[in-house]
Design brief:
The complex is a heterodimer of chains A (376) and B (447). Chain A has 376 residues and is mostly helical. Chain A contains 17 helices and no strands. Chain A folds into three domains: 121 residues, no CATH class; 75 residues, no CATH class; 104 residues, no CATH class. In chain A, helix 5 runs antiparallel to helix 16. The radius of gyration of chain A is 24 Å and the shape is globular. Chain B folds into four domains: 182 residues, NADH-ubiquinone oxidoreductase 51kDa subunit (Rossmann fold, 3-Layer(aba) Sandwich); 74 residues, OB fold (Dihydrolipoamide Acetyltransferase, E2P) (Beta Barrel), CATH 2.40.50; 68 residues, Ubiquitin-like (UB roll) (Roll); 65 residues, no CATH class. Helices cover 29% and strands 19% of the residues of chain B. Chain B has a six-stranded mixed sheet with strand order 1-14-13-17-15-16, with helices on both faces. Chain B has a four-stranded antiparallel sheet with strand order 2-8-7-4, with no helix packed on it. In chain B, strands 11-10-9-12 form a four-stranded parallel sheet, sandwiched between helices. Chain B is globular. Classes of the chains: A mainly alpha (376), B alpha/beta (447). Chains A and B meet through helix 1 and helix 17 of A and helix 10, strand 15, strand 16, helix 11 and helix 14 of B.
């Protein structure tokens, strides 16, 4: 046979159909989520200084080391799948910039060893490891987890006094609230909270050129010029990352939309009550862009392992998380409620997946023609 | 033109790769020197060999009889001498008897053309014959579904008592990536397909005909529409959005007539009969020329094939001969597939014969394949989202993996048709379809 028409040259692969597969892999998902977090990471390092880079490196290194060790013990090589690096990165994101470095290390080890591997490793844990690690150290080292650093834009302001987060200032002030205030911006200003010059300038630009009145406080929150955890402060950077994941079809809309939707609805309806403003007067901007909500909605609640598998299930889960976040923030004793809300909803995921099933094709609304045909 | 439709739930968009071969006109392959004709080329009972070693047979003569209710006759694709009756394994792992025919040297295409000629002055057979007579012609010609499953057509066209067909839906979807045999068929045999449709319409007595074609074949849509208009017929050509597995009859019916075939049921239960364009052409040949199903169009394609194309090959031709006709391989393929890449079978023996159901031969290179390692399921839910049947592949696989077949059955394992959307999509590379095939087999064994 001539070379031109050679037909056999080597062994062929035999496997079950389908014979081709999509390019998406588990590690591809994990690394892409990590990439999506990079803008927010860079922002955090830029505004809080290189100290926050050390926090991120320590948490990632600790998580990776723990993953490697567990894989070694159980004879599974899983470091390459990227999930441990992602967990470490998310733990670093949830740390205050000035946190003592042993805290993220312990959080990472707890997340990987206790939360993830004691249930069987990747895919088997029922609780988001990064959040569990954060909550564990939050309640163990309360002061270390509550010492905040002002971002550069604020620390240069002449009358910057308080270095608490906007939500923390708000919560403290609300404990003995006397009023009267028109809203959160007014209230925080009274409590000694300052906004950046950039935000004031930007608000002026919007007012003069477009005639849109924006609260400088909200601009700071959106851009990320506030005290807070390293990765959570910039809503803008997190949205850029989320947009990338949507484009890559890694994020689905159900969890983020239902989470934000229920939170925004509740905030709008009931959020104005503390000021005596009545129903339907809550401040959406402040509540959505403050604290860890953006990080929680797009990167924590959407963790595939610990969220439902069906679209309908995701809607229930997201709605519940939004509801709990609102309750914890408004009525809890802590300023922030995102982590606890998501962890609480993680508990319901097996239940949701058990009872919320997709409609099986051909098992409902059988048309009349068919019903007639089934005469025998 | 009619508004584009599709099925609502699930589905995937794999890269089509149809441009490799969709402009290559069908070429008649030379007849094989020896034809290996399997007795099991269809769903149901294999045909029984009715010739003996040493017999001389004529092209078109019955060499295997399908006696069971669901079976089909097998005809000699060439004239020659029965050299042997052997046992072979087909690419789909079915072991079957096969009749080996040595083609006589004088046999060529003109023999078939003279024997099976459409008489120009023949009165219209569709008008002349009754629906039962037409069905028996289809049965005698051994026509089976040529879209993949190879279900005997005469069984499908025999509408059961008490049931009524409102629609005849023609499947020109060809949703499997790479394959273009149906596309070429619609372009090159448009009029014959219309004649075939008329015959089948009479057999099942359906008032309405809808032809479903995906929008990546707009030339076929236009050609069909023109042919229908020229004849003054009222068939509807329904363009469909490109989405796999739209060519599955359940998804196709949901898309074109918005009815759901009940779980475990047949299309006739919702008043429809679905037939692939290839089968319709086979019906045309049987009814108008008397030719049984002894050849078919096969797409030979893939990145490892030198000149991808579409070939009219006699049943029993070796796949090696097909590949050689397409110029051989440019590089050693990593995998060869009989059928499309989503539901086809990977096989290793290039001497396997073409059967009535061989829609394509695909030679994939290493680059076309995914070698990512399998990881644990991360519950991403993508398999659930893409399942067109509304199943939960991840849960089913876990149950089967644990040997809990009863529970898997309760979660509708039997509604899985192995379309492969889940396994294609799964980022953890879990062999979901493999698991479901195994689970079904075990569940059947238990019951």
């Amino acid at each position: 046979m001539s070379e031109e028409t050679s037909t056999v040259t080597k062994d062929f692969i035999i496997e079950s159909s389908p014979q081709i597969r999509s390019a998406m892999t588990t590690s591809g998902i994990m690394w892409r989520v990590s990439i999506a977090l990079l803008p927010a990471a860079i922002w955090g390092i830029a505004v809080f200084g290189f100290r926050s880079l050390a926090v991120l490196i320590f948490s990632i290194a600790a998580a990776s080391a723990a993953e490697w060790l567990m894989g070694k013990l159980l004879n599974r090589r899983t470091l390459i799948d990227g999930s441990a690096v992602l967990t470490g990165l998310l733990i670093g994101f949830n740390m205050p910039p000035s946190v003592p470095l042993y805290i993220p290390v312990i959080a990472s080890i707890f997340a990987i060893v206790v939360v993830k591997w004691s249930f069987g490793g990747l895919g088997a844990n029922w609780m988001n490891p990064a959040l569990a690690g954060r909550v564990f150290v939050f309640f163990s080292w309360t002061s270390g987890m509550n010492s905040w650093k002002l971002p550069q834009a604020l620390s240069s302001m002449p009358d910057a006094l308080s270095s608490a987060t906007p939500l923390g200032t708000y919560k403290n002030g609300m404990l003995d609230y006397a009023g009267p205030h028109t809203g959160t911006a007014d209230f925080l200003q009274d409590a000694g909270y300052v906004v950046s010059q950039t935000a004031q300038n930007l608000a002026g630009v919007f007012q003069n050129t477009l005639g849109i009145t924006l609260q400088p406080l909200n601009i700071d929150l959106f851009l990320g010029n506030t005290a807070g955890c390293i990765g959570e402060v910039s809503a803008l950077m997190l949205l850029i990352g989320a947009g990338y994941l949507f484009a890559k079809k890694i994020l689905t809309w159900q969890t983020p939309v239902s989470y934000l939707g229920s939170f925004i609805l509740l905030t709008w309806v009931f959020g104005g009550l503390p000021y005596g403003n009545g129903l339907f007067s809550g401040e959406i901007w402040f509540n959505v862009f403050s604290g860890g909500l953006m990080l929680g909605v797009f990167f924590m609640a959407t963790d595939m392992v610990t969220s439902p598998v069906t679209g309908k299930g995701m809607l229930i889960y997201g709605t519940g998380a939004g509801f709990l976040t609102f309750l914890l923030r408004t009525y809890g004793s802590l300023p922030e409620g995102v982590s606890l809300a998501i962890i609480l909803m993680n508990i319901f995921v097996p239940l949701i997946d058990r009872y919320i099933r997709p409609a099986v094709f051909g098992k409902k609304d059988i048309p009349k023609a068919a019903a007639k045909g089934k005469g025998k | 033109m009619v508004k584009t439709r599709t099925f609502p739930k699930g589905g995937i968009h794999p890269h089509g790769r149809k441009t490799l071969s969709n402009t290559a006109a069908v070429v008649r392959l030379p007849f094989p020197k020896t034809a290996v004709v399997p007795m099991s080329q269809h769903l149901g009972a294999p045909a029984a060999v009715c010739v003996a070693k040493g017999d001389s047979v004529e092209a078109g003569q019955i060499i295997g009889t399908g006696e069971s209710f669901i079976s089909a006759d097998i005809h000699a694709p060439v004239s020659g001498t029965v050299k042997d009756i052997i046992s072979i394994v087909l690419p789909n792992s079915v072991r079957t008897q096969a009749v080996v025919i040595e083609t006589e040297t004088t046999f060529d295409e003109s023999v078939l053309e003279n024997k099976y000629r459409r008489e120009q002055n023949d009165s219209d057979p569709v008008a002349r014959l009754s629906s039962q007579e037409l069905i028996s012609i289809v049965k005698k010609a051994g026509v089976v579904g040529m879209g993949g499953a190879a279900f005997p057509s005469h069984v499908k066209f025999q509408v059961p008592k008490g049931k009524k067909a409102d629609y005849l839906v023609i499947n020109g979807v060809e949703c499997e990536p790479y394959l273009t045999s149906d596309h070429r068929m619609m372009l090159e045999h448009t009029d014959e397909i219309i004649d075939g449709i008329r015959a089948v319409q009479k057999m099942i007595n359906a008032p309405q005909v809808i032809i479903g074609i995906e929008k990546n074949k707009m030339d076929a849509v236009e050609k069909m529409e023109k042919a229908i208009a020229d004849r003054g017929l009222t068939y509807i050509v329904q363009p469909l959005k490109v989405k796999y597995p739209q060519g599955d009859e359940k998804q196709l019916l949901k898309a074109v007539i918005k009815r759901e075939v009940p779980s475990g049921g047949l299309p006739i239960e919702i008043g429809a009969v679905v037939s692939n364009v290839g089968s319709i052409f086979a019906v045309y040949e049987a009814v108008y020329t008397g030719k049984p199903l002894i050849d078919r169009i096969v797409t030979v394609t893939g990145d490892a094939v030198r000149r991808p194309g579409n070939f009219l090959a006699a049943v029993g031709t070796s796949i090696r001969q097909l590949v050689e006709a397409a110029g051989g391989f440019t590089e050693a393929p990593a995998k060869i597939v009989a059928g499309g890449p989503m539901m086809g079978f990977s096989f290793f023996d290039l001497d396997s014969p073409v059967t009535k159901g061989t829609s394509g031969i695909l030679a994939l290179t290493d680059k076309n394949l995914d070698h990512s390692p399998m990881t644990a399921c991360i519950s991403c839910g993508k398999c659930v989202a893409v399942c067109p049947m509304g199943l939960q592949p991840t849960k089913l696989f876990r149950l089967i993996d644990n040997g809990n077949f009863d529970e898997a059955l309760k979660l509708n394992l039997m509604d899985c048709k192995e379309c492969g959307c889940c396994a294609y999509t799964c980022p953890a590379k879990i062999p979901l379809v493999h698991g479901f095939k195994y689970g079904k087999k075990m569940a059947r064994k238990k019951s």
